[in-house]
């Protein structure tokens, strides 16, 4: 809904927006996210610049919704686990076959 000067938000819409905002978790600053993720601020700003971490601006400052950041960290860790598993097993499971062959010993 686009509001023009002099227009007001209908009461039902205001209530919906207030309920939405009340349901959201707290909003974090750069410093708070750095402490949560245990990273340096320059690392966090790099992630923001790359669009890798969910964030939004308030004026010149960056802000982060805590619930979204927590979900993002879980997704990142799940991705890392899948990547590790893919590396360990190799492409198409070739590493597993090589390991079995190594355990069997050399062919005579």
Give the CA-based shape.
Answer: elongated
- Fraction in beta strands: 5-15%
Counting H and I runs of at least 4 residues, what is the number of helices? Answer: 5
Run of helices and strands = HEHHEEHH
First and last CA, distance: 77 Å
| Integer count of domains | 1
At CATH level 3, the topology is: Multidrug-efflux Transporter Regulator, Chain: A, Domain 2
For the record, the CATH architecture stands as Orthogonal Bundle
The major β-sheet equals: 3 strands, antiparallel
Give the total of beta strands.
Answer: 3
Query: Quick one: CATH class?
Result: Mainly Alpha
* Poorly predicted runs of 5 or more residues: none
**Class based on secondary structure composition and strand pairing:** mainly alpha
Which bin fits the share of residues in helices?
A: 55-70%
The strands making up the biggest β-sheet line up spatially as 1-3-2
Radius of gyration: 24 Å
Query: Multimeric state of these chains?
Result: single chain
Average pLDDT value?
A: 80
Question: What is the secondary structure topology, with strand pairs?
Answer:
Layout lengths: L10 H13 L3 E2 L1 H8 L3 H10 L5 E3 L2 E5 H24 L4 H11 L4
Antiparallel strand pairs: 1-3, 2-3
Description:
The protein has 108 residues and is mainly alpha-helical. The protein has one domain (11-104): Orthogonal Bundle (Multidrug-efflux Transporter Regulator, Chain: A, Domain 2), CATH 1.10.1660. It has five helices and three strands; from the N terminus they run αβααββαα. The chain has helices spanning 11-23, 30-37, 41-50, 66-89, 94-104; strands at 27-28, 56-58, 61-65. A three-stranded antiparallel beta sheet has the order 1-3-2. The longest helix is centred in the C-terminal third of the chain and has 24 residues, at 66-89. The protein is elongated and about 85 Å long. It starts with 10 loop residues before the first helix and ends with a helix. The mean pLDDT is 80.
């Amino acid at each position: 809904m686009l509001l023009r000067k002099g227009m007001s938000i209908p009461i039902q819409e205001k209530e919906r927006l207030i309920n939405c905002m009340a349901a959201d978790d707290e909003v974090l600053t750069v410093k708070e996210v750095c402490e949560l993720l245990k990273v340096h601020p320059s690392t966090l700003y790099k992630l923001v610049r790359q669009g890798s971490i969910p964030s939004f601006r308030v004026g010149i400052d960056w802000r982060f919704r805590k619930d979204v950041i927590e979900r993002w960290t879980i997704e990142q860790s799940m991705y890392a686990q899948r990547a590790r598993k893919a590396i360990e097993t190799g492409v198409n499971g070739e590493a597993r076959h090589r390991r079995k062959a190594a355990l069997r010993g050399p062919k005579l």
